[in-house]
Amino acid sequence: MNLTLRIWRQAGPDAPGSMTTYQVSGISPDMSFLEMLDTLNEELITRGDQPVAFDHDCREGICGACGMVINGQAHGPERTTTCQLHMRHFKDGDTIDVEPWRASAFPVVKDLVVDRTAFDRIIGSGGYITAPTGSAPDAHATPVPKEAADTAFEHAECIGCGACVAACPNGSAMLFTSAKVVHLNVLPQGAPERSSRVRNMVAAMDDEGFGGCTNTGECATACPKGIPLTSIAAMNRQFLRASLG
Amino acid sequence: MTTVTRTGRPPSLLLNLWRSTVGKKAVMAVSGLLMLLYLVFHMLGNLQIFFGPEEINHYAHWLRTLGMPFLRYEWLLWIFRAGLTVCVVAHGVSAYQLSRRDIAARPTKYAHQRQRATYATRTMRWGGVILGLFVIWHILDLTTGTVNPVAEHEHPYQNIVASFDRWYSCVFYILAMLALGLHIRHGFWSAAQTLGANNARLNFFLKLAANGLALLLSVGFVSVPLAVMFGVVK
Ligand code: HEM
Ligand code: SF4
Ligand code: FES
């Protein structure tokens, strides 16, 4: 496959950036999108140019590092991560636009790399349970109802990739935060801190400068892990109950 | 097993709610739903016009004497007006503040633009502004009578017919009611989501109810200027 790429290039956090056009050839449809970018970068390095900086780690769809907006869609046309997106979803001769996540809470570090530590601070404000560690607890010490376990699993799938923020016209982190809140609040282990967790995590989210939710649903459409939009309603319910009760 | 870490309740409950994006949105949802409830009754009242001048003029008189003699003339009406004013202001201020914040949170647009969300969702802000302007015009026209050619007290029938004898009054009214329909189509479901009343099972029915309410209200309201335009009511 031969492709035209228009990629956001930005030398550093405060440097001005722009979309720059590149041609790549000899791309196999079986390559992942990241492998296609690797091919481009090898060429750039051979030519003595700066390679395109992008985040990646596991390359198997579980770490959430490989965020980029492809043709206006977070992680591109398929509902998966960029590392799991294959070039067979594009056609020979296509022009593909590649941009970093856009949100003021996710400043660009370089090219396609953004700083997502705002998510870490939200987690630090309540995305954990307080329990003694060191010795493993007895397996059946805390029974977990099947339904709660299923809900917790569904929400624990969130990999913190930030596609929800990137897709949201308000740069809102509500889907991410609700995934974490619902995951822990539904479990008996999370119960004692239920109320402070939701209040602190919403406060941390607001402090980071993420936008509010206007229920456009773009986040849930973009989420590679299928976190449902109704999880935001669940977090709203718990937040209002915790704040008023 | 776990240790309980109950952090104390925040000092000022309402202020803290108002400061958070979720709380402010809840204010928007509650005020919006109260206005929506009012609009259902307002529309039903308006439909009295199809029963003739005596019926609707009598209805207007009844509204003003409601609660008498416990309350005085027009007192209940003024209580409703005060409540609605609070709703409009709370709704508008929270919409404005949240919109400012949302725009600041996404300062850079994507170079590759794509159509996002439904038309109703995308037009909430401008549709809201149209509704706000309409509310001002509507009060000057049919409440105070400032811009109404007839402006007779307790004679809404004559005032309405006179107002809709002007083409621009009809156009503005109908446009505003279409904007209202769109606003409710997204707003009703959105309010349920904001107040935490949505879940996977309810989602479909809430969207259905939102569409039904939106259609019912816009058709009900628009029928009045249409009836005047086509001479059904004159
Ligand atoms: C003063 C004029 C108005 C303005 C400026 C305005 C603006 C807005 C805005 C910006 C939103 C948020 C939209 C979003 O989240 O995407 C909203 C939501 C809403 N509006 Fe209005 N609006 C106005 C009038 C009304 C009226 C007359 C009603 C009554 C039917 C209403 C009912 C609602 C409801 C129920 C919501 C949903 C709240 C939520 O999303 O939780 N609005 N409005
Ligand atoms: S909610 Fe989905 S889109 Fe958002 S960070 Fe988690 S996995 Fe990514
Ligand atoms: S590189 Fe880990 S999810 Fe893509």
TrEMBL record, chain A:
<dbReference type="GO" id="GO:0022904">
    <property type="term" value="P:respiratory electron transport chain"/>
</dbReference>
<dbReference type="InterPro" id="IPR012675">
    <property type="entry name" value="Beta-grasp_dom_sf"/>
</dbReference>
<dbReference type="InterPro" id="IPR050573">
    <property type="entry name" value="SDH/FRD_Iron-Sulfur"/>
</dbReference>
<dbReference type="InterPro" id="IPR017900">
    <property type="entry name" value="4Fe4S_Fe_S_CS"/>
</dbReference>
<protein>
    <submittedName>
        <fullName>Succinate dehydrogenase</fullName>
    </submittedName>
</protein>
<dbReference type="InterPro" id="IPR017896">
    <property type="entry name" value="4Fe4S_Fe-S-bd"/>
</dbReference>
<dbReference type="Pfam" id="PF13085">
    <property type="entry name" value="Fer2_3"/>
</dbReference>
<dbReference type="GO" id="GO:0051537">
    <property type="term" value="F:2 iron, 2 sulfur cluster binding"/>
</dbReference>
<dbReference type="GO" id="GO:0009055">
    <property type="term" value="F:electron transfer activity"/>
</dbReference>
<dbReference type="GO" id="GO:0009060">
    <property type="term" value="P:aerobic respiration"/>
</dbReference>
<keyword id="KW-0411">Iron-sulfur</keyword>
<comment type="similarity">
    <text>Belongs to the succinate dehydrogenase/fumarate reductase iron-sulfur protein family.</text>
</comment>
<dbReference type="Pfam" id="PF12838">
    <property type="entry name" value="Fer4_7"/>
</dbReference>
<keyword id="KW-0408">Iron</keyword>
<dbReference type="GO" id="GO:0046872">
    <property type="term" value="F:metal ion binding"/>
</dbReference>
<keyword id="KW-0479">Metal-binding</keyword>
<dbReference type="InterPro" id="IPR009051">
    <property type="entry name" value="Helical_ferredxn"/>
</dbReference>
<feature type="domain" description="4Fe-4S ferredoxin-type">
    <location>
        <begin position="149"/>
        <end position="179"/>
    </location>
</feature>
<dbReference type="InterPro" id="IPR036010">
    <property type="entry name" value="2Fe-2S_ferredoxin-like_sf"/>
</dbReference>
<dbReference type="InterPro" id="IPR025192">
    <property type="entry name" value="Succ_DH/fum_Rdtase_N"/>
</dbReference>
<dbReference type="InterPro" id="IPR006058">
    <property type="entry name" value="2Fe2S_fd_BS"/>
</dbReference>
UniProtKB/TrEMBL annotation, chain B:
<dbReference type="GO" id="GO:0016020">
    <property type="term" value="C:membrane"/>
</dbReference>
<keyword id="KW-1133">Transmembrane helix</keyword>
<dbReference type="InterPro" id="IPR011138">
    <property type="entry name" value="Cytochrome_b-558"/>
</dbReference>
<feature type="transmembrane region" description="Helical">
    <location>
        <begin position="119"/>
        <end position="140"/>
    </location>
</feature>
<feature type="transmembrane region" description="Helical">
    <location>
        <begin position="204"/>
        <end position="233"/>
    </location>
</feature>
<feature type="transmembrane region" description="Helical">
    <location>
        <begin position="166"/>
        <end position="184"/>
    </location>
</feature>
<protein>
    <submittedName>
        <fullName>Succinate dehydrogenase cytochrome b subunit</fullName>
    </submittedName>
</protein>
<feature type="transmembrane region" description="Helical">
    <location>
        <begin position="75"/>
        <end position="98"/>
    </location>
</feature>
<dbReference type="InterPro" id="IPR034804">
    <property type="entry name" value="SQR/QFR_C/D"/>
</dbReference>
<keyword id="KW-0472">Membrane</keyword>
<feature type="transmembrane region" description="Helical">
    <location>
        <begin position="26"/>
        <end position="44"/>
    </location>
</feature>
<keyword id="KW-0812">Transmembrane</keyword>
